[in-house]
What does this fold into?
Amino acid sequence: MKPNFVSEYFDAPIRQLDMLARIFLVISLFVLPISTAATNVFMGLTLIAWLAAGGYKARLIQLHGHWFAYAVGMLFLVICLGATYSSGSQSDILFQLKKYSKLLFILPAISLLQDEKWQQRALMAFSASMVLVLFLSLASVVWPLPFVLGTANGQGSSHHVFKDYIAQNLMMSFFALFLAVKAQFASDLKSKIVLFSLAALAVVDILFFVAGRTGFVSLAFNAIVFIFFLSTIKKKITGIILIVFVAVFTLQLSTNFNNRVSSAVTEFKAQEKKELTSIGMRVEFFKKSIQLYMEKPFFGSGTGSYANEFCRVADSAEWCEAGKFHPHNQFLAFMVQLGAVGLIAYLVFIAAAIKSATNLIRPLQICSVGLVATLIADSITHAPLFLVTESQFFILLFPALLTQKNKRRHS
It folds into this structure.
C-alpha cells in the first residue's frame, strides 16, 4: 500500500495543477472579447500551470497524429529559421519572434482540452462573453454607455465595446456562424428560435452598428461556409435567398455599411494620389510587398526584415512610418520575410486546420471551417497572427474547436 500512497501523494498536486491550467484556459476564453491584458495574464497562468504539472510525454502522445499541431510547429520552425538570415535589425527580429512565439500556445491548449467537457466549457465561456458584448453593443445604440467605445446614438458611429471595431466584428462574425450552427442542430424548437434570433442580432450589429469592412468580408465568408454545409439543395437555395435578402436590406438601410463601402470606392479611385487612406495604404503595401517578394521569391529577406525592406523602397519617410509594421496582409507578410517557403508553411497551417476539422462531429466541423474562413478574411485585409488581439482570438479558438482528432462524424 505504501508505494500507492506515495504515488497518490505526489500525483495529487500534479492533477490539481492540470485542473488549474484548464480553469485558467477557460477564463482566458471568457475574457478574450473583453480585455487583451486580462487574456494575456490568464494565458500566461495557463502556461505556467501546464508546465508545472509535467507529464510531457503524455502530452506529446496526445498531440501525436494531430495535423494542426504539426502545422503549428512547422510554421514556427520556418519563422525561426528565417531569423538566421534576416536583413532586419536585432530588435526587429526579436520583436517578430516574440509575436509569433504565441502560436506555440496552441499546443498545450490542445492537450488541456482533450476532455469533451472542458472543450464545451471553453466554448461556453467564449459564448457567454460574446453575448455580453453583443447586448452592450446594441444597447449603446440607444443609451450611450461610458465604457463602450461607440457612444453616439443610432447609426453613423461604431458601437464596438471593449475591442477595436475590426477585432469585435471578426469575433462577432464567427459567433454568428457558431449560433446558427448551434440552432441548426438544437433538439427543440425553443432553443432553435433563441439561437437563430441571437445569430440575427449578431449580423445586424455587424452590418448596421459597427464599422469595419474586414467584418463585412468575414461575415460573407462565414455565410458561404454555413450554406455549403447545409444538407440539402433546397436548404442551400433557401439560404442563398436569405443572404440576398439581407444584402438588399442592408444596402437600403445601413448607413454604416454604405458609408464604409462608399469610402472604400473613393479611396481606391484616389490611390494614385498616394494619400494615407485605409484602402490607399493597403494598395500601396500590396504593390511594395510584391516588389520585395520578387527580389527574393524563395526564402524572402528573413524574419523581422519587413520594416527595413519596406522603408528601403517606400516613396517617402511618411510612407515608411505608415507601413513599417506589417503590410495589412498576413500572406504578404510571410511572402516578404520568408518567401515561397513561408507562404507554403502558412497555407499548410490553414489546410491542416481544415484537415483536422474533417474528423470532428458535424457542428464542430462547420464551426472550425468557419474559423478558418474568418482567418482567411482577416489575412487578406489585416495581420491576424501579428496583432495581439486578433492572434489571441485564433490561438484560443482553434484549440477549443480542434482538440479531438478521431471523433466520428455524427450530429
